[in-house]
Design goal:
Largest sheet: 6 strands, mixed
Bound molecules: tetrahydrodeoxyuridine
CATH class: Alpha Beta
Radius of gyration: 16 Å
CATH superfamily: Cytidine Deaminase, domain 2
Distance between the termini: 25 Å
Shape: globular
CATH architecture: 3-Layer(aba) Sandwich
Order of helices and strands: EHEEHEHEE
Length: about 160
Amino acid sequence: MKKVERIISYTEYASDKELTPEEARLLREAEEATRGSYSPYSHFAVGAAVLLENGEIIRGSNQENAAYPVGLCAERVALFYASHTYPGVAVKAIAITAKSEIHSVKDPVKPCGSCRQVMAETEYRSGKKMKIILKGETGKVITFDGTDNLLPFSFSGEDL
Ligand code: THU
């Protein structure tokens, strides 16, 4: 028997002004994407922007439903649409943010477990890691190099 420890790492930035121009642009696209959110139940508008290796940017936002579990997160809307539109093209980066009229979104938005699993499989399919850029409405930004840092023990096609 042995105890195993795994270290995850991420980078904190005081504001989006410290990001590269490409990262800052993707974050702005994610902020724009919140405008497409349909979130009358949570009042939490999430926006995601996916940068593909071919240079295309695909946006997505959360889409809710009166039957709550039927809705879908912004990240999966964007990633599934990117996969549908550009099959086989790797994802270089995803930016995620949120805004709300009733909550104050001070901290960077953390993607839910299901979205992390989809991000992990997106990397698995292409064999390439993506950068993940997270921000709230204001303040600091955090970035991760690869989903392994967000979901260290993802379920993979190899487990089947
Ligand atoms: N949501 C996302 O769009 N992405 C996440 O990673 C977490 C949560 C959405 C789902 C729901 O519409 C609202 O945020 C509140 O949970």
